[in-house]
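Q: Could you predict the 3D structure of Vanomycin resistance protein VanB?
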Amino acid sequence: MRNAGPIESPTDPFASVPLPTSATSRKPRIEGLPPGVSRDIFGGVQDAPQATAKGQDGGSLPPVATPAQPWPVNEGKVDPPIPPAPVFGLPGQQDRPPALLDPDPPRRGRLLPAILVLVVMAAVLAYLVPAVMMSGSVLRGTRVGGVDIGGLTMTQAADKLRAELAARLSKPVAVDIAGKRETIQPDEAGLELDVVGTINQAPSGFPSPVEVWRGLTGTTELEPKVTVDASQLTRTVEGLAEAYDKAPREGRVAFRELRPVAAEPQDGALLDREDAVRVITDAFLHARGSAALTIRPAKPQTTVADVTAAKAEALQAIAAPLTLAIDGKRAELSPSAIAAHLTYVSDGKGGLAPQFDAKAALAGVESSLIDESQAPRDATYEIVNGKPELVPARAGRGVDDRQLARDVARVITGDGPRVIPVKLDTVRPEVATSEVKDLGITANVGEFTTTFDCCQPRAINIQRMAAQLDGRLVKPGETFSLNAAVGERTREKGYVEAGQIVGGRMVNIVGGGVSQFATTMYNAVFFAGFDDVEHVPMDYYAARYPAGRDVALLYPDLDLKWRNDSDHGVLIKATTTGTSVTVTLWGTKRYDRIQALESPKRAFTPFRRETSSAPGCLPVTGQQGFTIDVTRVFYKGGEEVRRDRKLTTKYRPQAQVTCTVSTGTN
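A: Sure. Here are the predicted structure tokens for Vanomycin resistance protein VanB:
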């Protein structure tokens, strides 16, 4: 070979083999091997092209061996080389491809969720920690009428409200009535702080996030729940009305012996009861401290002219006697008898009309017209030797007193003869024997007695009511009403004016004191075992009555009603002495014994002291208030067979009233 120098054998057979220039090279390139060195030393290389080289002398060189595959893998596929493990923090590492640096997401992507979790946990802890501390108590910052009850248990909050708030609400209300001032105490209005209802308004238990925030940063103001007992306040207003009412007086003509005496009509003034209840209630609930009550005028229906005309007619009425005639028999009503039973009263239409009490007038003359043995008689019972005996009814003959009253009114206003023909007819008894003989009235089933001071006006009223009810029968299933049986207590019925507590005030009313008769009857009914339908306890405790078993009676509002729930009739016997009244009920005994279980007296309240110089002032002894429970228990055969629902009575403290007499000074 021309210009070819000698071939030097290299000391390193690989010195002439260049290294790969890229990390991604797949096959090493081997060039310029020295003569006599075969490529096979690197491994066989398939499919390498066969080349023939010429030597220097023109001869042929050995064929070039096929390049070898040093790291054969799956046929047709070559996996990428495994990169070396990264070394964090080494210089130049940032130049490596991201996929080879870190397979995890970027740091910013991991940090944001972590921050959110921490924020949520902090918020939850910020709520839960104070919430747990506040749970089980009234929410902090809660105030009722200026009293802070936040953070207290329900019991502690109730005690604090009773101690601090109840005292503030116990302020009385001053009422103005026609220029005069009266004081209404909270107990007279039935005012009570509803502690439970008030506290139930307060947030408690496990607080919500909003409540926690309010408890930490603000306050919760609550209005105290205060109730007014409408029935109690109505009775108090009724007591005020009795003292201030001036009912209009209708014109009237009556006789004083044989001289007609006229009473001219007069205007009246009445307390507006409904308005008074509303105004006083509003004053207490809004702590106003004062209220003005309305007195409304009341006009009579009759006029002075009506009275003048009636007076002239009255003189004509007694100008001559009246003669009653029947079958040749005559009885005369003298002018004195006519005058004693004749009055001119309002007819309800703006005029005056004669009113004649014929029944009372006949009492003295009817025997001249019929025999006493012919008079009718109602069936009843009489107690003979401690046992009831039936007195049969009897039909009789008599004068119709209602017809006679109409005839007298017609005759005395006319100019005709003053003879009134009367006719005796058969008069049937109002109560027949058949109605009472099989009622089973055989034994004393209930009896009670109360006492009173002798010779007082109230004693007359008690005795009068007993006389009206003695001998009355109550049939099986019938409900007895004391007000319905007796009616309104009036002077015409024999009642007189006496003191009675009405709405917390001692006032003089016609029929005062009859609550004692109602109390006596109630206890007889209690121990006889009959149903209590309606009764209202007295406002104040009186030692002469059993605690929790007294009754207030006032026509027509306060009544005593009881039902004969037995299969037998009941006979009422009412007797009186100068200092006592007894009510005995006769029927068929159903129980061996009836017991009154009384709880100890509790919740004592002190009474206040007052002085009064008002006209007609009546002194009153102070009495503290208290609460008591009474339960009626029924026994038969030595065992308890029934008991009524517990009856709770709350007595108000009775103010001690001292009457003072004002004296003028010169």
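Q: Anything worth pointing out?
A: The longest strand covers residues 625-636.
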